[in-house]
């Protein structure tokens, strides 16, 4: 019997188990973007917002140790796809993304809307109506991806959604495709007239997306806790702060 080989195999197995335990014991790396009022940077650099409050209460009840990081959406999305022990919010759960992550949610509702400038006279009653106009979105956003798939050819994608506030105001785009809460928030922040809601083109919900290596037991437990938060009125109380 090759005892040396057995000894090396045993050492490798123990080392692998220790490494796995270390990864599981490390704080969960939870990433998000600046997407008010759901997730954003507040005073002193603290990450705040509607979704953030839901996530913090969820992990508190679950006893999950974590750290929050704010970064550009595309980078956060790719990091969560490829790195174990990571999660990302607020993530729209689409058919294209369904198999890429494990999901806890929904955290919040967030309808996608076409907005025009406050002075424009644009009427839209369907997606086809909107295709004649130049439409602003941003790179990696689910709403922009959806419009691409629907055959929109006049999309103008910015690095982030804040850029679309001034593009709309300056007439560089006709419509802005974004979340129903985000447009008025950003307009107020940038001190421009609040844009006009033209057409709700999709009703959506946003969730926590976890890397595929996340244990199923954790996903099940978090979904159970989130359901309890909805049942006991916690989610409604958090939502009320932002209405």
Automatic annotation (TrEMBL):
<dbReference type="Pfam" id="PF00497">
    <property type="entry name" value="SBP_bac_3"/>
</dbReference>
<feature type="domain" description="Solute-binding protein family 3/N-terminal">
    <location>
        <begin position="27"/>
        <end position="243"/>
    </location>
</feature>
<protein>
    <submittedName>
        <fullName>Amino acid ABC transporter substrate-binding protein</fullName>
    </submittedName>
</protein>
<keyword id="KW-0732">Signal</keyword>
<feature type="signal peptide">
    <location>
        <begin position="1"/>
        <end position="25"/>
    </location>
</feature>
<dbReference type="InterPro" id="IPR001638">
    <property type="entry name" value="Solute-binding_3/MltF_N"/>
</dbReference>
